[in-house]
């Protein structure tokens, strides 16, 4: 088969097809209504050719005149096809639809195409009479896009005909203004909805004899031997009928109609009755005539849905009489008269009837429903006084929300009855209806306020197989004298009569699996021993105080917003998760749940310390893995000894002072907000990390964790005794542990030999003995001794040979000679980062350190008040004595990079001298060999006046808030960021400095009083690589 690439086809039967073919064979071309021309003869005579050319020229010159005449003709004939304005649909521009002997006859393709052209130009003008349409058909046909050889539609995405297909693609709604605008369809005096368009498209596309195109997309009356010049536009694909059937099975009815317009094979495939077993006209504006056509076309349809359709009574009567195999019928939103229920018995195959939101009969008399094979009946939201149902095969009946006073049932096999929200049904009527169905298994009488215990007793005696009962919102029942032994599901929401006395009656239902008691305001206690109970709900029971459940199959408990609940006793072998959140008065909890794994007791503010015994070994929960006790503020001493516990959360338990966890499987513990914890023991646990920095009052700590790698004690200011046995520990942060002494540090280093990072900041009690114990840590690489009272660092130099990071911030007792082993004796050869910020070292010690420690990569000298100048170009600091030769030392540029010959380069990468108040001059020449320096921070140095830096790899330079800066010289070809915020520096100096930085991208000159907004252009001209300039845009 061939699939042609085109926007849309309009199929139909041309009434004069035989005459046209005959005329073409005889060489007659005088008929102006012919669209494709004459291709019957192999040769075309000269006279016919000239006449055709003349017609085409005349059409091109007078197209507007034809349009005006067409519009006038249509206005004159507005009552032509429409008749008296009522009845059948008038299809306007598309041409009328006729019925002949029950067969569908489409209007000629010529008329439809000409009417489409006029519709597009006229924008919705009503169609005229057939003679008026024929008057303009000839001229319109001359302009049709047809392939002159194969007589198929050309590819033309801008064709006006595509508007018809656009309507089919629209969704099923009540109206489509855009479709009406393009098509100008009208039914009677109003514009039809998409539902009418859907029906007529379906009728045109499913008439197997009316399609002028064959399965290959070509006209039947053409010469197949003649090939088109545009043959390369064809898409050839061979699809078998079975494959098409499988593909089309995934389409809905609207898309099936779209597919039917492709070719004859697709039309035949989409017309298969398998796709039209279900005729769904829900909320569609379908007429009785249209429905009759569909019924005759598909008499084997088994399911019909006409809910929301107009004239519902006539449609449903047609369905009952025409569709003899109908099994499922859905109707609603209308009036169903008595004849419908009388004729219902004649539809012998009907099995399911759904009536929703309808008025049955006149609404005041009894409606009989009798059918021998009906199995499912739903009459929901129906308005009727009385109904009588006699259906011997009926299995389910729903009368939910129907407005009826009585229902007489004669359904011996009925097993499901739903009369929920039938407010007018009396207690006697409900009793009579239920006991007349002895096979009932499920009954829903929710919101039936008249139901009493007497009715339930009668039902229990008559319906021995009753399994499901929903009596929610029935205020008059208490169940005290009702026995329902076979019940499996019982729902009693908001039943004001349910009390603790009702539980004795429920206890007789030994088969009960689901029990729901939400909003039972008078219920105070529940004590049940039901072996099959699996699910219980107790929500918003204001007076409920005591729960005692024994069920080996209990798997789900929902307890919420029961403010009086104070005691729970549960025995179950199936319960795995228990959530009892916000039970503020719960004080006693007893559990015997062998498979319980998760317990959440968040905001149970009245729980006592005895809860720990419940969740410890021997307490009844041997497989407990997760326990949440967040915000249980009455807990003071928590002691858990559990071999199964994996996760414990005590967030917000502010009253806890003692914590003892002997849980070898414990992997996660949260102690946020435990502000008063004084003693903690974790022996043994499986924790990999522990943060006790949020426990500022912790005094005694004992940890035995074979898997722990990280321990944070930051802020435990009163911690004086600590026993830490963690053989895999690699990181220990004991910052601000002011009471931590040397003996504790020595014991820790002995038991934790793998420590690589040790933070002892603000630990003033640590002395030389404690530092000597660091020799037990061969992997120690990071040591922080900031804010300590150390005066001698020799124990560190002797013990930490692999140290890479040493922080000595604010160690004010270090003397000038404290660091001599670093730059004289070569101590700590692996040291890379050194922090001496806020120290008291003199200028000479700093210069010696800079000159000799060439292996340092990061050096911080922030806030060093004794550092005056950083001049690596003078003779000071032994720079002049260092042997070495530099090629071209006088100049340094991007093309001429200094190459050290004998002297090794400095490895320094980051140098921070922030807030050095006495530094005045910074000079780093090429001879300093700082080839790796990438970041230099000199901000907040208020007295800094001169900066002269020659550094090839420098990328970041910060001189912000250097308010005295006057001289700035830079030869840094790789500098990308320069910060001069709040610097009192001249514009010309900045311009000259950045001109030597060919890769500068970011320049910050905000709050520089001598640099105005109009200077931004000159700065960009000085450095073409600038991308971002931050300025305060102050005027000059």
UniProtKB/TrEMBL annotation:
The organism's place on the tree of life at top rank: Eukaryota
Segments for region (Disordered): 16-45
InterPro entries: F-box-like_dom_sf, F-box_dom, FBL15-like, Leu-rich_rpt_Cys-con_subtyp, LRR_dom_sf
Boundaries of every F-box domain copy: 233-279
Alphabetical list of SMART domains matching this protein: FBOX, LRR_CC
PANTHER family, alphabetized: F-BOX DOMAIN-CONTAINING PROTEIN, OS10G0396666 PROTEIN
Protein name: F-box domain-containing protein
Record organism: Salix viminalis (Common osier)
